[in-house]
Amino acid sequence: MDDYTDRLRKLALGDEVLVAAVLAGEPNRETSGLEDKIHALVRLSTTFAVDAGQTSYQLAVERALAAGATPDEIAGTLLAVVGLTGVPRAVAAAPMLALALGYDVDAALEGLDA
Predict the structure, then answer these.
(1) Residue 21 pLDDT > 80, yes or no?
(2) Which DSSP string do the residues of 54-75 spell out, in sequence order?
(3) Which InterPro entries does this UniProt record tie to the protein (predicted)?
(4) What does DSSP assign to residue 50?
(5) Residue 114: its pLDDT value, please?
(6) With DSSP H G I counted as helix, E B as strand and the rest as coil, what are the percentages for the chain, rounded to 5?
(7) Nearest to residue 97, comparing CAs of 38, 40, 44, 37?
(8) What's the whole-model pTM score?
(9) What's residue 71's pLDDT?
(10) CA–CA distance, 52 with 78 (Å, rounded to integer)
């Protein structure tokens, strides 16, 4: 049986060992079979989908950068899921993502008033 079919079968059956590994966080990367950068970007996309708070964005962006993702790839991740999460959620996520990337959102908004 292929790795992915075995993992999906175990997950569908609620395999306690697999579920525990998935819920453990970082070991989840090995369990998923994804490369570090792809794994970090997928996790970041779920941050948008669940309407997470700023701390979650910060941690997800730090993981993605540490895994080799560029700021453009990180922003692209948000754009890639807009069709699924909806424009309002993307609009709400954009400033939090920008802050997590070190962008001064307040200064940019002040510039609009000038």
Answers:
(1) no
(2) HHHHHHHHHHHHHTT--HHHHH
(3) AhpD-like
(4) T
(5) 59
(6) 75, 0, 25
(7) 44
(8) 0.75
(9) 96
(10) 13
Report the C-alpha gap between 39 and 90 in whole angstroms. 20
Q: At residue 69, what are phi and psi to the nearest 5 degrees?
A: -75, 145
The percentage of residues in the chain with a pLDDT greater than 70, rounded to a whole number, is: 91
In contact, 40 and 63? CB cutoff 8 Å? yes
d(CA 41, CA 82): 14
How many Å apart are CA 46 and CA 33, to the nearest integer?
18
One-letter identity of residue 50: V
Q: What is the pLDDT of residue 8?
A: 82
At 83, the amino acid letter reads G
What pLDDT shows up at residue 25? 63
